[in-house]
Amino acid sequence: MEKIILLIVLFVLCCVVSFSQEIRWQNTIGGNNNDIITSIEQTADGGYILGGYSESGISGDKTEGCVGSPDYWIVKTDASGNIQWQNTIGGYSTDYLFSTRQTADGGYILGGYSGSPISGDKTELCIGGYDYWIVKTDSMGNIQWQNTIGGSSYDELYSIQQTSDMGYILGGHSTSNSGGDKTENNNGVVDFWIVKTDSLGNIQWDNTIGGSSDDQLHSIQGTVDGGYILGGSSYSDISGDKTENSNGSRDYWIVKTDSLGNIQWQNTIGGNNYDKLYSIQQTADGGYILAGYSNSIISGDKTENSIGNDYWIVKTDSLGIIQWQNTIGGSGWDEPHSIQQTGDGGYILCGYSGSNISGDKTENCTGTWDFWIVKTDALGNIIWQNTIGGNNDDRSYSIRQTADGGYIVGGFSDSNISGDKTENSMGSLDYWIVKLTDNYNLITGKLFFDANSNAMQDAGEPAVANKTVT
């Protein structure tokens, strides 16, 4: 009898593992034109803040027209993805929002770049073609202050985070030489540019970091020692701040600085072709997890051939030395944009895929591009994956583990009802948010890491069957 019970338990567990992740709910949010989400995170009240940019007028879910095209567009939802409030923020020209974070006071910090003059919500002229534009709002999305930061050419901000002193660290790249707010000339065509501000957005220091060619920064994060980790990509050989040659045409380039932005160490990581890093995060052991895409074969630092254009995740120790890596993809184009360590010590990745069943891909795409979510264990081995989309173009850019142990994914969609899409798009592209539930962890009662409070808590949200994957 005991053997029969054991077999039943094992069968149930196998079913749970094979049906390990489901769509709980989704929402298509947009107006009559292009609306592209670039950032999503869970808020302290259990809802979500969505950040991106919009070209839509008043239509569909949009309650304000754009001042220019596009404008920043932030949307706050409740825990079920229903809109609570929204704000369209911009000037007469182009304003692109790439990073939105809740702040300690319950408001939000928005980071992107702007080409707008004084107009609409813009209170300062641009110094160059594009400037960093940071906007602080209260808890209802109303502007409290803003700052336009830049040099004489093009400065593009992609990552912002509040620091322990209640100021902000800004990371992006610049083609500007010294002038305006820039205190150093570029070493090459494009350099990393990091800026530290106080709690009101006033510049405290900045640092231009690069080699003689093209170096693009996409992700910055404060580290436990009070410094910063920078993640991007580089074309540069040894020159300027670069201490290693590139292995291929573009490599991952990670740079660790102290609290004042001075370089402590760096590592150039890549193969013989094109490797572009989009997301970096410090891990619980003090090391770092890197995610981007690669089409390099075994060469340089690459230990696996790419099948097509593949996800490439790299784990390093606290000094940036590679501990392990995994090349994950199918025969087509697969591009990740976000990675986060999860409460079980593994990792969650999101991006988009044009690959059908091949290589690591276990599902065909429904449309041209689909969301592709991949969950790994602590060593980067795939635990489960899900290809999510409709009959057209669907791309995810941001994923976070939620307090219940599931995941919230944000991207855009121009698919109508088809495949996994349960609503038609209202314009060309709409915000598309998808809440995922991890049944395996719910059943096993694993603990989860709350990305907002850094607290451990039990999973508790029941699963709702919508889609199952193996």
Q: What would you say this structure looks like, in words?
A:
- The protein has 470 residues and is mainly beta.
- It is 5% helix and 45% strand.
- It has two helices and 30 strands.
- It has helices spanning 2-18, 439-444; strands at residues 21-29, 35-42, 48-54, 71-77, 83-89, 95-102, 108-114, 131-137, 143-149, 155-162, 168-174, 191-197, 203-209, 215-222, 228-234, 251-257, 263-269, 275-282, 288-294, 310-316, 322-328, 334-341, 347-353, 370-376, 382-388, 394-401, 407-413, 430-438, 447-449, 456-458.
- The protein has a four-stranded antiparallel beta sheet with strand order 1-28-27-26.
- The radius of gyration is 22 Å and the shape is globular.
- Residues 1-19 and 442-470 have low confidence and may be disordered.
Task: Briefly summarize what is shown.
The chain has 470 residues and is mainly beta. It has two helices and 30 strands. The longest helix has 17 residues, at 2-18.
Beta-strand content estimate: over 45%
- Biggest β-sheet strands, sense, barrel: 4 strands, antiparallel
Q: Given the helix and strand composition, which structural class is it?
A: mainly beta
Helix content: under 10%
What is the typical, i.e. mean, pLDDT? 91
Number of helices: 2
Low-confidence stretches: 1-19, 442-470
Shape: globular
Distance between the termini: 30 Å
**Strand order in the sheet with the most strands:** 1-28-27-26
Radius of gyration from the CA trace? 22 Å
